[in-house]
Design a protein that fits this description.
By secondary structure, the chain is mostly helical. It is built from 4 helices and no strands. The mean pLDDT is 84. The protein is 74% helix and 0% strand.
Length: 143
């Protein structure tokens, strides 16, 4: 399999698997933190906004991960520069996302948990595919 095809499939699989896992974790989180039912139920449930935010956020992370294709340029052919290509832009987006959801206010446990639900599955899969890529790619260079 070519390296470009491997990266593109990695981006697609990372987005798909992390979206499924994050959505399931978010469903569990929302059910555990659901307020008690009162006499007058709310007419508007904002949980759909959280699901949409996570799915769109994971799409943005996947788009940012296209920076990994820079690792094919000659100037990015070292281990450190390849890791920067794979992780720098997504990590910058994750930091921005964290400050966006906290809105500059005091950070609560729910904010941190929501941040982890939205980012950790994607980061875990992306790290796995990077390790596969670097194992294959740098083995070829060392020959």
């Amino acid at each position: 399999m070519s390296k470009k095809k491997f990266i593109l499939l990695s981006i697609l699989k990372t987005w798909l698997f992390s979206t499924i896992i994050s959505t399931v974790l978010l469903i569990v989180f929302m059910n555990l933190t659901k307020p008690e039912v009162s006499e007058h139920p709310r007419n508007c449930d904002m949980s759909g906004l959280a699901y949409g935010l996570v799915i769109i956020w994971l799409l943005f992370l996947s788009i940012a991960s296209f920076s990994s294709l820079l690792s094919f340029l000659r100037s990015f052919q070292s281990k450190i520069k390849t890791a920067l290509c794979w992780f720098l832009l997504p990590i910058i987006f994750m930091i921005y996302y964290f400050f966006m959801i906290t809105e500059g206010q005091k950070i609560s446990g729910e904010d941190v948990l929501f941040f982890l639900i939205a980012n950790f599955p994607w980061l875990a899969f992306w790290t796995f595919y990077y390790s596969q890529f670097s194992r294959i790619y740098f083995k070829e260079i060392d020959k």
